[in-house]
């Protein structure tokens, strides 16, 4: 029991990780399913999406993310610009690696589906070739009437019709399975493309979020505007 209490206390003292940048959360907000994000990260995400990136629950003005009371970042140590840059790079690499692993799994699944498609196609060709079935049966039975179809027993004709009907039913079922597999392949390819585009977009946005880019602009505005004036000087 003491070990259980100790584990619970330890889990409550661990830093919360943002589901987007995978770093320690800053100014935390949560969705309705209690997934935690940095406020900056979720703001960037919601510019192009309207769902939670973790559980896909809709995030709208009527159902927004809520701030965590007491979730401050004042106790976090001050890190240099170089350290923050390396941290961002590491987080991006982790995200990229995670997407690549998921893409590899999807590609393997696509290859497995392709092999199943080929196997089903070969089965269809075999089923749709009644002559091959008849020849195989003739080679096994060596029935004397097989060389003269006109002398075949009517019961044999009925039996072959039943076999052909069964083969057609199997063909239709296999054809439906092939169509479903092809549709699944298309969806997987679309998901792969979407993941790649989202990965590139997140990488570009995080690269452009360096705080150093805004310092020169602020300093130039301060120089261009004289003390006590509301607008820059004009010549």
TrEMBL record:
| Coiled-coil segments | 89-123, 157-205
Which PROSITE patterns does the record cross-reference, listed alphabetically?
ZF_RING_2
- Name its GO BP terms in alphabetical order: protein monoubiquitination; regulation of DNA replication
* Top-level division of the source organism's lineage: Eukaryota
Domain RING-type: start-end pairs: 18-56
UniProt GO molecular function? ubiquitin-protein transferase activity; zinc ion binding
Question: Pfam families, per this entry?
Answer: zf-C3HC4_2
Q: Which InterPro entries match?
A: OBI1, OBI1_RING-HC, Znf_RING, Znf_RING/FYVE/PHD
What keyword terms does UniProt attach to this protein? Answer: Coiled coil, Metal-binding, Zinc, Zinc-finger
Q: Which PANTHER family match?
A: ORC UBIQUITIN LIGASE 1, RING FINGER PROTEIN 219
- The protein's name is ORC ubiquitin ligase 1
Organism (species):
Mus musculus (Mouse)
């Amino acid at each position: 029991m003491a070990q259980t209490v100790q584990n619970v206390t330890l889990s409550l003292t661990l830093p919360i990780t943002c589901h987007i940048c995978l770093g320690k959360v800053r100014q935390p907000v949560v969705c309705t399913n209690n997934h935690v994000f940095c406020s900056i990260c979720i703001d960037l995400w919601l510019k192009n999406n309207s769902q939670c990136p973790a559980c896909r629950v809709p995030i709208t003005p009527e159902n927004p993310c809520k701030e965590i009371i007491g979730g401050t970042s004042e106790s976090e140590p001050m890190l240099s610009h170089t350290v923050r840059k390396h941290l961002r790079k590491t987080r991006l690499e982790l995200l990229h690696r995670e997407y690549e692993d998921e893409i590899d799994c999807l590609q393997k699944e696509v290859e497995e589906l392709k092999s199943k498609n080929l196997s089903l196609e070969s089965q269809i060709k075999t089923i749709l070739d009644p002559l091959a079935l008849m020849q195989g049966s003739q080679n096994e039975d060596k029935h004397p009437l097989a060389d003269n179809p006109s002398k075949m027993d009517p019961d044999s004709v009925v039996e072959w019709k039943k076999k052909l009907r069964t083969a057609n039913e199997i063909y239709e079922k296999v054809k439906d399975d092939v169509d479903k597999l092809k549709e699944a392949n298309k969806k997987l390819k679309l998901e792969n493309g979407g993941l790649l585009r989202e990965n590139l977009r997140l990488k570009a946005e995080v690269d452009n979020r360096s705080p150093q880019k805004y310092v020169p602009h602020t300093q130039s505005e301060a120089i261009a505007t004289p003390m006590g004036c509301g607008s820059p000087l004009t010549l």
